[in-house]
Amino acid sequence: MTLIFGETEEAEKASPWPEVLISSCPSNDAVAGIAHIVFYVNDIEEIMVAVELAGRKLRAKQPFSVNQGNLILKFAGAIDPSGNSIELFEESLPE
Questions:
Q1: What domains can be seen in the chain, in order of their start residue?
Q2: How far apart are CA 27 and CA 63, in angstroms?
Q3: Which residue from 46, 47, 72, 92 has the highest number of Cβ atoms inside 10 Å of its Cβ?
């Protein structure tokens, strides 16, 4: 399930809040990996700086980038104060 905040489609697209993806898998599913929350962001580098300034731990200093067809996908991981994994995700067109 993806949550996007806004009363109309236009409001959702203009919303300053990130999209939130919620999914689940069985706790004994070894293929599923780790449970975490994913935030879709517009500027992953800016968010990574904000995460560090807030005193939170990033998994890497630079986002991991993948070219997927005509899109560039960027991923970054962080740890919240309770030790939960957080993933940041950015999708953009090549410049």
A1: 2-25+33-92 (3.10.180.10)
A2: 28
A3: 47
Residue 61 CB partners (closer than 8 Å, separation 6+): none
Q: In the 3-class helix/strand/coil scheme, how is the chain assigned residue by residue?
A: CEECCCCCHHHHHHCCCCEEECCCCCCCCHHHCCCEEEEECCCHHHHHHHHHHCCCEECCCCCEEEEECCEEEEEEEEECCCCCEEEEEEEECCC
Task: Give the pairing of strands 85-92 and 36-40.
Answer: parallel
Q: Which two tokens stand for residue 94?
A: 């090549």
* C-alpha distances in Å from residue 72, one per residue of 83, 84, 91: 29, 26, 6
